Hints:
Blueprint: E1 8-11, H1 17-28, E2 32-37, H2 40-50, E3 54-58, H3 64-78, E4 81-86, H4 101-122, E5 126-135, H5 148-168, E6 174-180, E7 183-184, H6 186-197, E8 212-213, H7 214-226, E9 234-237
Parallel strand pairs: 1-2, 1-4, 2-3, 4-5, 5-6, 6-9, 7-8
Helix pairs in contact: 1-7, 3-4, 4-5
Amino acid sequence: MTQLEGKITLITGGTAGIGFATAQRMAAEGATVYLTGRSADKAEAAAALIGGDVHGIAADISSLDDLDRVYGVIRERSSRLDIVVANAGGGDLLGIGDVTEVVYDATFDVNVKGTFFTVQKALPLLGDGAAIIIVSSISGITAAPGMSVYGATKAAVRHLARSWALELAPRDIRVAALCPGPVDTPGMEKHLREAAAHGDVVGPTTPLGRRADADEIAEGALFLATATFLSGSDLILDGAAIA
């Protein structure tokens, strides 16, 4: 029997990178998967590429109306949720003097507000024993030039995960933060381009001498979904970068 047979899963930001790899991995383990992306075409294409019982829904998670629509679809089709992977997020490599109000608001709206209300609005559908996985980053633990706003948002969602683990423990709902280091994703490629534009050379940045593959981070998400006594903790997958 596969590990997630019969489980209903939502993965936000599931059209590329860690989110897509996690959707693939959980679908392979037997889950019904709902994934979101800002573009209907991309969300539907990602679901079709994975195949099986996978459904793509267009949504901007910083929009509460969009989140209501996502949960309306899940309620109508599946009636419940067992696993939420709050993965959608992003940010720019910008020094403090280059951060505009627009950039600041957009980053916090998606990474913090979006994560907060993704989880809040999932609660009526989550049964006892459900799992919530918050995708943070080692940027929420360690500091780096140009990462102050992004890192602050990722530190914030780590704190949300710890607080929610306590609040939801009476319902046996587990909450944990997944904290990847550098991963080969479209977001990382964007980061590398921004670094190059500033004259910086960014190497693998881990003692293992490479960046992670998104599939390796998806394995961490699967572990958190099935580790029944793990809650309120960080799972750090950083290639020993902060060991």
